């Protein structure tokens, strides 16, 4: 997922992320029953997941002292809130 530079900072990334999560929860989840959605954003743009309001959480670092940039959301929890 990406947004062309001229459209950055206008909320399009958040809208695309919400659309993707909606598609997964409405269509994909029912067909394959996946439990989590993971996002691996560029290091400079992890806030998109957090500010989306969808409940993404930062994954724990695989090594002590390493900064983790991946995020996840529990679809089951999202659908049952």
Key structural traits:
about 80 residues; alpha+beta; three-stranded antiparallel β-sheet; 3 strands
Task: Provide a descriptive summary of the structure in words.
By secondary structure, the chain is an alpha+beta fold. The chain has one domain (7-79). The protein is built from three helices and three strands; from the N terminus they run H-E-H-E-E-H. The protein has a three-stranded antiparallel sheet with strand order 1-3-2. The longest helix has 21 residues, at 12-32. It starts with 11 loop residues before the first helix and ends with a helix. The mean pLDDT is 82.
Strand content: 5-15%
User: What is the number of helical segments per DSSP (H or I, 4+ residues)?
Assistant: 3
Tally the beta strands. 3
The largest β sheet comes out as: 3 strands, antiparallel
**How big is the Rg?**
14 Å
Number of domains: 1
Q: How far apart are the first and last residues' alpha carbons, in Å? A: 27 Å
H and E order = HEHEEH
| Class of secondary structure makeup | alpha+beta
Basic shape: flat
Low-pLDDT ranges: none
DSSP helix fraction: 25-40%
Strand order of the largest sheet: 1-3-2
Question: What is the residue-averaged pLDDT?
Answer: 82
């Amino acid at each position: 997922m990406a947004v062309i530079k001229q459209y950055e900072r206008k909320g399009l990334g958040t809208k695309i992320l919400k659309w993707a999560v909606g598609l997964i929860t409405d269509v994909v989840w029912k067909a394959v029953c996946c439990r989590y959605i993971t996002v691996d954003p560029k290091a400079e743009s992890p806030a998109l997941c957090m500010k989306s309001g969808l409940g993404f959480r930062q994954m724990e670092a695989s090594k002590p002292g390493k900064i983790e940039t991946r995020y996840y959301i529990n679809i089951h929890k999202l659908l049952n809130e």
